[in-house]
Amino acid sequence: MSGGVDSAxxxxxxxxxxxxxxxxHLALSRMPGTLRTGSRGCCTIEDSMDARRAAAKLGIPFYVxxxxxxxxxxxxxxxxxxxxxxxxxxxxxxxxxxxKFAALLDKALALGxxxxxxxxxxxxRQGPDGVELHRAAAWAKDQSYxxxxxxxxxxxHSWFPLGATPSKAEVRAEAEARGLSVAxxxxxxDICFIPxxxxxxxxxxxxxxxxxxxxxxxxERIGTHPGAAAxxxxxxxxxxxxxxxxxxxxxxxxxVRPKTNEVVVGPKEALAISELAGARFSWAGAAxxxxxxxxxxxxxxxxxxxxxxxTARLEDGELVIRVEEPIEGVAPGxxxxxxxxxRVVGQCTIDRxxxxxxxxx
Length: 361
Description:
By secondary structure, the chain is an alpha+beta fold.
């Protein structure tokens, strides 16, 4: 129970279905002020109190489990290491993968519970080859992307009661009808462990910020940056090159090179990617029978991005995804989630991309 309306209603539906339900809130930091407060983050002190009140209203036991050390090592330290390596990580994916559906689920199963129930908008179904993960009924709220890292074993012990709910408005109305005080609470967003929202400043204090070269695609130095770790592929603001490109068009970050502390920039069309691949991949259920020969699919590279038609196959230890039409703003470190219809087939952390536009253009 995060302290939000979704997890409160999910718990209420689990109670109503006749299950023995215990509410658990995750303490992810022992240091006051190191996680966001108010409604902008999640797992704050305020959130724990909201979760406790919801559990009391539902008449279920409530506990706070301290996962702060695991969260620091598996999510925060990973976030810093990925940026230091020039990649753009998704900490919410890591939290789901390593905290909520690994550490939390492992502890729950060890204590004799059958499943972890959350307020995510997605559905677990039984398919012909076993358990499957599917998109939620409400595509506008669908959260299957951030659950794409879950394995068949984890899905078998997961339940998402809100998956078939047509809209968030219906969830809020249900919460109000049940007398839950979080009915009108705003959704959480932003990175919870960066209290003031200043990601660049937060990273600079941990990775370091040393001036380096801004290069164009030909390798010519055209400016100076305050620290490569602060930049991500697709970024436009903050380059401060000082003069326009030869054609007068804006420049975008195309590549971050942490070893040489360089940032490569170029035109927007150079962000177009025709292929992406990653060696760190997993299947959300049974692996596709045609994984080695290739299969038609759709790929989604951000939580709220539109899925794009593609083909995927296993090649030399990588999940290689080729899109039918180029997509923009894809960075190493991001997660590519593969769908067939509404089903999440699997995912990979992007290690490399292939530009659809040659460097000479």
